[in-house]
Structure formats: structure tokens, C-alpha cells
Amino acid sequence: MAELKLERAFPTSQENLFAWISDGAKLLQWWGPEGMHVPEHDLDFSRLGPWHSVMVNAEGQRYKVSGQVTHVDPPNSVGFTWGWHDDQDQRGAESHVTLTVSATESGAKLVLDHRELADAEVATNHNQGWTSSLRKLEAQF
To answer: How far does the signal peptide extend, from start to end residue (predicted)?
Structure first.
């Protein structure tokens, strides 16, 4: 198993940053790598239960991912399971993501912790995707 941990600082309050990682309308503004749009989703990390999103790239390729929101602790953290779907909509291996927000002297810090990834190659792919998505989040501030 592999894991991925990314940290970013934001010039905003802990409460506002938490809203950007939990509220569905705000999530849609940065969810998915650059160049992707999300035409289908149930993104709401402010409550426990199922979630899903379908990301589509410029060539029309669809990438579906789904899981369960496992914990919500405003304004500190949210956790959810993550599993990609194949072309037959069968959900694959499950991993777990925790987004943790903390106050800093100049704003707030986000720590993204993606655990239980199958191997280093999967972790590298997720690193690229999350890094791109976080660039979109950073652009919101």
C-alpha cells in the first residue's frame, strides 16, 4: 500500500477554507484536475453518506469516482472513501482521503492525506491529479 500527503497554505480563515472543501457548490469550482469538468455529481462533504462525481476531459473521456463520507468535523476535517469505476461502472479498489484544515498566523493550512492506495504508481497518478486540483483551489483566493 502507498499513501500521499500534500500541504497547502491559503490566505483565508480556517472556517472559510473548510467551506471550500465541504460545500458542494464550492467543491465544484475546484474538483478535478485542470481541463476537466464535472457534469454529474453528488458532491457534499458537509454530511455523512454517499458521494460521487464524473469528471470529463476535453476529449470526452469520463472518469467516475465514488465513496462514502466517513466523518465531518467542522471546521477541522472531512474524510471520505474513494474508488474509481471502470467502463462497466464497476467500482474498483477503495482508498481513503482526509482533508484537514488548521489555522495559521497568516490564514489556514490544508493537509490532504490519501491513504491505502494500491501502489507507488497509483500514488503518483493521484499526486498529479490532486496537485492540479489544488492549483484550481488556490486560484479561488
So the answer is: none
